[in-house]
């Protein structure tokens, strides 16, 4: 065990503090059942996709990572070739 | 054949979520496919103990309502790839937690996993009764302390009467997990001894988890103690518990003491 990891072992509380600060900052924006921005974006993006094509729910993968200064929203959609082939430009 | 395990206690703060995380991680590390479900709607914490709190997208209520597929809502652990978490909803109404909906989720999980671990909320309200409803096995988490033991007794009564197994005339396999145990204090007569607790509750002992700073350290870091400090005393006790749960059984049930002979438990 290195000296650094020995030192690190003793101080888990700062990690706990940082994790809680990030988590609570996000949770406090959620009031009375209202979603936060990342969740709203997620739902609206999926609604737009659903408007244009019937993608089975299974082929949409969504990942989020809520960070202190940056959150990421990753939407991964498998679009079957049969759909793309049949697609016509709108209007 | 998948097994549904409920981690329950009645009383809050005795270590249900910590134990769910520790047992789930240890089972998954032994190669089993494990899904843990947080049933504490409105006050979820299993995600935090697992260090997955930033990655929650969907939750149990989303799956029950059909907003998301099971596969989309399950969060895969970054350390053990056979370990998965289905978080509780933090915002939505508890009323969406229905018997039928929970049944569907559990049936779906049974097809894909070896172990489904239901982390019960405290109390005996809907979240707690639904968490135990489908259980094959129950781990009753108890502290050596009067109110915890009383509440555990109540929960054991519910396990024997309100579960699907009980209603079909079968038995949920029950195990006692004694947590936050300080042998030195028991020796000095300051807290109840293991034998006392076993005599009163009269269900077989799964393991004794000693009081340890490693448990707090692990939750600070967002790691189950069996992954964060695998050589610590509590982690070794949880690993022992997992070996017993996997069927390399176990010591014979303790001789029933005078108390449990005189006062047999009745269904709640």
TrEMBL record, chain A:
SUPFAM superfamilies per UniProt: Cell division protein MinE topological specificity domain
Keyword Cell division: yes
Source taxon at top rank: Bacteria
Matches recorded under InterPro entries: MinE, MinE_sf
GO biological process: cell division; regulation of division septum assembly
Keywords recorded for this protein, A-Z: Cell cycle, Cell division
Annotated family: Belongs to the MinE family.
Function summary: Prevents the cell division inhibition by proteins MinC and MinD at internal division sites while permitting inhibition at polar sites. This ensures cell division at the proper site by restricting the formation of a division septum at the midpoint of the long axis of the cell.
Name listed for the protein in its UniProt record: Cell division topological specificity factor
Annotated organism of origin: Microvirga aerilata
Gene that this sequence comes from: minE
UniProtKB/TrEMBL annotation, chain B:
Keyword set, alphabetical order: ATP-binding, Cell cycle, Cell division, Nucleotide-binding, Septation
Gene3D superfamilies registered for this protein in UniProt: P-loop containing nucleotide triphosphate hydrolases
GO BP terms, alphabetized: division septum assembly; negative regulation of cell division
Pfam families: CbiA
Presence of keyword Nucleotide-binding: yes
Residues that coordinate or bind ATP: 11-18
GO CC annotation terms, alphabetical: cytoplasmic side of plasma membrane; cytosol
Domain CobQ/CobB/MinD/ParA nucleotide binding: 5-224
One GO MF term: ATP hydrolysis activity
Its biological purpose: ATPase required for the correct placement of the division site. Cell division inhibitors MinC and MinD act in concert to form an inhibitor capable of blocking formation of the polar Z ring septums. Rapidly oscillates between the poles of the cell to destabilize FtsZ filaments that have formed before they mature into polar Z rings.
Stated family: Belongs to the ParA family. MinD subfamily.
Subunit structure: Interacts with MinC and FtsZ.
NCBIfam families reported in the protein's UniProt record: minD_bact
Protein name as it appears in the record: Septum site-determining protein MinD
Phylogenetic classification of the source organism: Bacteria, Pseudomonadati, Pseudomonadota, Alphaproteobacteria, Hyphomicrobiales
């Amino acid at each position: 065990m290195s000296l650094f990891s020995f030192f690190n072992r003793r101080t888990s509380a700062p990690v706990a503090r940082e994790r809680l600060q990030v988590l609570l900052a996000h949770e406090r924006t959620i009031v009375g059942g209202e979603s936060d921005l990342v969740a709203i974006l997620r739902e609206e993006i999926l609604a737009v996709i659903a408007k244009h094509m019937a993608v089975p729910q299974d082929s949409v993968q969504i990942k989020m990572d809520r960070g202190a200064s940056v959150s990421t929203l990753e939407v991964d959609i498998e679009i079957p070739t049969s759909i793309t082939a049949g697609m016509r430009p709108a209007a | 054949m998948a097994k549904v395990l409920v981690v329950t206690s009645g009383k809050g703060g005795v270590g249900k979520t910590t134990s769910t995380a520790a047992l789930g991680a240890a089972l998954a590390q032994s190669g089993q496919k494990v899904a843990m479900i947080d049933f504490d709607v409105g006050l979820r914490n299993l995600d935090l103990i697992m260090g997955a709190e930033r990655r929650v997208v969907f939750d149990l209520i989303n799956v029950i309502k059909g907003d998301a597929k099971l596969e989309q809502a399950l969060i895969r652990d970054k350390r053990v790839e056979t370990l998965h978490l289905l978080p509780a909803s933090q915002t939505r109404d508890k009323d969406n937690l229905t018997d039928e909906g929970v049944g569907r989720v559990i049936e779906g999980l049974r097809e894909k996993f070896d172990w489904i671990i239901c982390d019960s909320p405290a109390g005996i309200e809907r979240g707690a009764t639904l968490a135990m409803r489908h259980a094959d096995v129950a781990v009753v988490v108890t502290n050596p302390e009067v109110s915890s033991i009383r509440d555990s007794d109540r929960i054991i009564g519910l396990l024997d009467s309100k579960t699907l197994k009980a209603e079909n005339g079968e038995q949920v396999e029950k195990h006692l997990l004694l947590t936050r145990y300080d042998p030195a204090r028991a020796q000095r007569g300051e807290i109840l001894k293991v034998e006392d607790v076993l005599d009163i509750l009269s269900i077989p002992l799964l393991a004794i988890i000693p009081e340890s700073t490693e448990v707090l350290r692990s939750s600070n870091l967002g790691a189950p103690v069996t992954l964060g400090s695998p050589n610590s005393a509590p982690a070794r006790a949880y690993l022992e518990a997992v070996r017993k749960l996997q069927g390399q059984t176990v010591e014979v049930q303790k001789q029933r003491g005078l108390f449990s002979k005189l006062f047999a438990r009745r269904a709640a």
